[in-house]
Specification:
- The chain is globular.
- Helices cover about 10% and strands about 50% of the residues.
- By secondary structure, it is mostly beta strands.
């Protein structure tokens, strides 16, 4: 039998390359959530102004996440790793019903009660970024960040008039956060950004955090969530929870 020997230097290269590839594959990847099972145990709700106004439910329906709320205040359902930093986050969303003035929301860098959000919906049009709130709402795309529980804690980064998402039709929302720069896409079109995310005076910038989906005064379905970035662990396309469990419904104590 012919035996060959690998030079010592080559062995070191092979070992080093193996360690690099293992580390890279473990931490640089795409995290997917397709709601293949009905467990929402890894998700947490974050409510604008920490209010209990209105009624909200979250449940897995036909392999999608369905959220329903009668509240004018944004409800976020969040998950992920607070160590995630620079990443792209996107999902498909199908609004089923709209009640009064409302919006659909995508959130990034959620940490505690602080977050960056981009919304498409009926919003006040600000005379200038960071300015006062006018009285008449109109369809707008708006990105902001700061303390989600404070009435004055969020700073507007950018805003432009934009049509509402069509009912009973799938659309795609995407937000990219890299360093202090943000871009917001709707159906493959960059509607806001790249824009610099300047924090409110006296507050630290939001550099890391989880992701979230949200709504106000809407019933909508969410699917095909994808988070891609250098700090994101690749989950191989599996759902957040690998084991199917009994259906979990997130709801307020009140019923619709």
């Amino acid at each position: 039998m012919l035996m060959t020997r690998t030079p010592k230097g080559m062995k070191l290269i092979v070992v080093g390359l193996s360690v690099f590839l293992f580390t890279f594959s473990a931490w640089a990847g795409k995290f997917l959530e397709k709601f293949d099972d009905r467990d929402l145990g890894a998700w947490r709700e974050l409510i604008r102004l920490d209010s209990d106004i209105g009624q909200t439910s979250w449940e897995v329906v036909e392999g999608t996440l369905e959220g329903a709320t009668r509240s004018p205040l944004i409800r976020l359902l969040t998950m992920g790793d607070e160590r995630w930093s620079n990443y792209d986050f996107e999902f498909d969303v199908k609004p089923l019903e709209k009640r009064n003035e409302g919006n659909i929301t995508i959130a990034a860098r959620v940490k505690g009660n602080r977050t960056i959000i981009c919304i498409i919906g009926d919003g006040p049009r600000f005379a200038k970024v960071g300015g006062g709130i006018p009285a008449v709402p109109e369809p707008m795309a708006t990105c902001m960040g700061g303390n989600f529980h404070s009435a004055t804690g969020m700073r507007i980064f950018a805003q432009e008039p934009s049509p509402l998402l069509k009912l009973n039709k799938w659309s795609n929302l995407k937000v990219s956060v890299h360093g202090d720069t943000l871009t917001f896409w709707i159906n493959g079109k960059a509607v806001l950004g790249p824009v610099v995310m300047e924090p409110k005076e006296g507050t630290l910038p939001l550099l890391r955090g989880k992701i979230g989906v949200g709504l106000a005064n809407y019933t909508a379905r969410f699917d095909n969530l994808a988070i891609t970035g250098g700090s994101v662990r690749d989950n191989g396309g599996f759902s957040v929870s690998p084991n199917a469990k009994i259906a979990t419904t997130w709801a307020s104590l009140k019923q619709f």
